[in-house]
Amino acid sequence: MAKPLTSDAIPVAPRTYRDKSFNSRTLVLEDGRAFMVEKSRIVTDVPELVAYLDQHDDFESVAAE
Fold it and tell me: What are the residue ranges spanned by the domains of the chain?
């Protein structure tokens, strides 16, 4: 019997976001994982972080540089 898919099992292509409010900051997800914004950019392939960034107006998805 196949295991049900979780968000950890679904691969996400790396995405780049621009932070419109801060040059640098630390984002902490509910599960305690921390991610750094540097030079107003964050690149991630973590599904939970992508969902978080997509839901907040401070971040906009941009073409990878």
Answer: 14-62
pLDDT higher at 58 or 11: 58
Tokens 């991630």 belong to residue:
44
Put residue 28 in one of left, alpha, beta given phi > 0 → left and psi -120 to 50 → alpha: beta
Across the chain, mean pLDDT equals 87
Q: Which amino acid is at 19?
A: D
Residue whose structure tokens are 């990878």 = 64
Give the span between the Cα atoms of 35 and 28, in whole angstroms.
6
CB 53 within 8 A of CB 17: yes
Q: What is the pTM of this model?
A: 0.78
- For residues 7 and 47, the answer to whether their CB atoms sit within 8 Å is yes
